[in-house]
Recover the amino acids of this structure.
C-alpha cells in the first residue's frame, strides 16, 4: 500500500505531463490553422489589389514601292510590326491606384519603354484625378492607340493619327462624368509637357493644356477636343535627306518651330449597335513656323458577321499653308559654300487613303486581320512620306498589304 502511495505522485505527474503535451499539440495545431487562414486572407487581398494584363501584336506588311506610307517599304520585316506590352494596376486604397505600362517594340530592338506611369484617385464616383505619364487624349482611340485587339482595323487611319507624332505626356488631368437617363457627358481637362522622337521629327510640347468633351448614349458617341501648347519641332529627316546628298544643313535650318504656338482641334463621331460600326474623326493641327498646318479626316464602316468583321476606311489629309513654304532649306557643301539644299515644299502634305480589310476573331482575346491600303495623290506633296523617293520617281500611288495578329490578355 505504501508503495502505491509513493508511486501515485509519479503517476499523476506523468498523466499531467501527457495532458500538457496534448494541450500544447492542440494549441500548435490551432495556431497553424489560424496562420494558414491569415495567409489565405493576405493572398486574397494581394490578388484583389494587384492586377496584370497586356497586349501583343505581330504581323507582316509590304508595299508596292518605297513611298514610305507608315514607314512601310518593299522590304519591311515582321519585327517592324511587332510589340509586346504589360500593364500593372495596383490598388493603393479603395479610391486610389497606381498604373504602369511597359511596351517593347520590335522596331526598337524590344527595349522596354514606360508608356504609362501614373497615380489616380477618385474622390467621388463621378470624378477621377490622375498625375504622371499618360496618353495624350487627342483622338477617340488615344488610350488604346497601340492595343490592336481593341480596334477593328489593322492600324489606325494614318491620315488622322500620323500628323501628331507624340503619344504620351507627363502631367495631370481631371475627368468628370455627368450621368443622364440613358446617356452620359464626360469632360476632361489636362495639362503637362512631352518630348518624343518620331520617324520624321523630334517634337517637344511645353505648357500643354486641353479640354475634351464626350457624350454617349452607348450606341452613338460624339467627341470634341481643343488643345494648345508651345511647340518645338526639329525635322531630323530633313537633315538626313541633305546628308544623303553630301550636304550639311546650316545650323537651325532643321528647326521647324522653336517654342511656337501650336493648336489642335478635333471632332469625332461614332455609332455601334453591335452589328454595324461607323467611326469618323476630323482634326486640324496648327503650328506657327514652317511646320505644316494640316486638316485631316477619315470615315470607317464595319459590319460584324459573327467572328468576321469586314471594313472599309477612306481617309484624307492636306496641308493648308503651302504658300508659307516657298523657299529652301540651306546647306553647306564640303567646300564651305552655302546652297539651297531641300525645298521647303517637301513638307507640303496631300494624300488620299483607301483601305479594305477583314478582322477574324479566332478566339477570345485573339484576332487576325488582313488589310489592303491604296494611297495616292501625294506626287506633289510628299509630307509624311519618303520625300527622297516621292520627289525622284514617277510613282503617283502606293499599295500596302498587311497581315496582322493582335492579342489582349
Amino acid at each position: 500500500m505504501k508503495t502505491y502511495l509513493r508511486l501515485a505522485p509519479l503517476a499523476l505527474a506523468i498523466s499531467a505531463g501527457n495532458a500538457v503535451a496534448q494541450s500544447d499539440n492542440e494549441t500548435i495545431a490551432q495556431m497553424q490553422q489560424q496562420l494558414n487562414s491569415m495567409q489565405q486572407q493576405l493572398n486574397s487581398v494581394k490578388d484583389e489589389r494587384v492586377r496584370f494584363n497586356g497586349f501583343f501584336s505581330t504581323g507582316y506588311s509590304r508595299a508596292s514601292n518605297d513611298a514610305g506610307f507608315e514607314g512601310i517599304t518593299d522590304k519591311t520585316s515582321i519585327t517592324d510590326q511587332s510589340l509586346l506590352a504589360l500593364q500593372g494596376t495596383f490598388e493603393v486604397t479603395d479610391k486610389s491606384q497606381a498604373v504602369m505600362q511597359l511596351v517593347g517594340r520590335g522596331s526598337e530592338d524590344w527595349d522596354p519603354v514606360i508608356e504609362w506611369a501614373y497615380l489616380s484617385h477618385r474622390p467621388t464616383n463621378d470624378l477621377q484625378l490622375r498625375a504622371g505619364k499618360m496618353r495624350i487624349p487627342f483622338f477617340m482611340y488615344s488610350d488604346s492607340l497601340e492595343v490592336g485587339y481593341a480596334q477593328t482595323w489593322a492600324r489606325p487611319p494614318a491620315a488622322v493619327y500620323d500628323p501628331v507624332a507624340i503619344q504620351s505626356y507627363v502631367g495631370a488631368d481631371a475627368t468628370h462624368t455627368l450621368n443622364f437617363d440613358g446617356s452620359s457627358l464626360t469632360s476632361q481637362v489636362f495639362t503637362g509637357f512631352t518630348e518624343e522622337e518620331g520617324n520624321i521629327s523630334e517634337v517637344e510640347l511645353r505648357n500643354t493644356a486641353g479640354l475634351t468633351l464626350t457624350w454617349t448614349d452607348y450606341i452613338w458617341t460624339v467627341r470634341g477636343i481643343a488643345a494648345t501648347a508651345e511647340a518645338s519641332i526639329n525635322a531630323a529627316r530633313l537633315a538626313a535627306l541633305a546628308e544623303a546628298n553630301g550636304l550639311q544643313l546650316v545650323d537651325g535650318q532643321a528647326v521647324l518651330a522653336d517654342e511656337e504656338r501650336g493648336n489642335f482641334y478635333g471632332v469625332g463621331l461614332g455609332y455601334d449597335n453591335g452589328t454595324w460600326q461607323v467611326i469618323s474623326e476630323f482634326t486640324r493641327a496648327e503650328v506657327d513656323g514652317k511646320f505644316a498646318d494640316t486638316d485631316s479626316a477619315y470615315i470607317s464602316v464595319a459590319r460584324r458577321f459573327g467572328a468576321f468583321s469586314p471594313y472599309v476606311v477612306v481617309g484624307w489629309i492636306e496641308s493648308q499653308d503651302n504658300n508659307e513654304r516657298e523657299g529652301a532649306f540651306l546647306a553647306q557643301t564640303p567646300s564651305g559654300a552655302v546652297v539651297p539644299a531641300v525645298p521647303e515644299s517637301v513638307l507640303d502634305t496631300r494624300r488620299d487613303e483607301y483601305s479594305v480589310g477583314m478582322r477574324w476573331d479566332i478566339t477570345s482575346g485573339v484576332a487576325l486581320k488582313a488589310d489592303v491600303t491604296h494611297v495616292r495623290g501625294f506626287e506633289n506633296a510628299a509630307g509624311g512620306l519618303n520625300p527622297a523617293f516621292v520627289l525622284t520617281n514617277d510613282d503617283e500611288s502606293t499599295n500596302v498589304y498587311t497581315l496582322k495578329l493582335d492579342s489582349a490578355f
